Amino acid sequence: MQVKNVHKEQFLSDKLIEAQISPQLTPEMKEEVIETLFQYREAFASDNESLGAIKSHEVEITLNVERPYPPPLRRSAYPASPRAREALESHINELMKLGVLRKVGHNEEVEVTTPVIITWHNDKLRMVCDFRTLNTHTIPDRYPIPRIHETLTQLSKAIFITNMDSLKGFHQNFLTTHARKLLRIISHCGLYEYLRMPFGIINSPSHYQRMIKTLFPHELSE
C-alpha cells in the first residue's frame, strides 16, 4: 500500500502537475478522483513524451483541381528575421523528433508547397502554416461540429464536470500518402512533409470531430 502511494504521488507530480481538482469536493470525492486518474495513468502524457496515434482514422485531402496542379499551389518561402529563423529551425527539429514531420528528399517530386511563419504568444513560439491557398482548392468536409450553446445545454444538469485536453490532438491523426504530398511546407530550412494532421487545414476540425464521435459514440450521446 505504501509503495502504491509513492507511485501515486510520483504520478501526480510528473503527469498531473497541471491538473486542477475542485476545492469544493469533499476529501472522499477528491481521493476518488485521484484513484480514477491513477487507475488510467497510461492514458496521460506530457509535452516531452512521444505522441500517441489514433489507428484507422487516416486523414485524406481531396482537391477540386486535377493534376498538374495550378502554379499558385506551389508557393515560395516567406522571409524571416534571424530570431524567427532560429526559432523555426528549433521547432521543425522538435516536430521531426515527434514524428510529425519528415524532410523531403532532393529527388522527390514536389507539386504543392505551403510557406510557414513563426509567431510568439506570451513568449511561447508557434509555427503557423499558411494553408489559405490549399484550403481554397480543398473540397470541404461537411461533418457537423457541435454548437457551443447546445453543448452547454447538455451540461446544464450535470453535477460534476470534467474537462480533459488531448495532447497535440490533431497531431495524433495520421495522413494518407496522398495527403502527405499536399501538406509539404517550405522555409529557409528546406522542404518538409507532414506525417500527421496539422493545424490550419480546412477539414482538420471536421475530421477530428468524426474521429471523436467514432471512438466515443455512447459517451457523447449520454
TrEMBL record:
Gene3D superfamilies: 3.30.70.270, HIV Type 1 Reverse Transcriptase, subunit A, domain 1 (3.10.10.10). InterPro entries: DNA/RNA_pol_sf, Retrovirus_Pol_polyprotein, Rev_trsase/Diguanyl_cyclase, RT_dom. It comes from the Eukaryota. Pfam families: RVT_1 (PF00078). Residues 123-216 form the Reverse transcriptase domain. Signal peptide: none annotated. This is Reverse transcriptase domain-containing protein. It comes from Austropuccinia psidii MF-1.
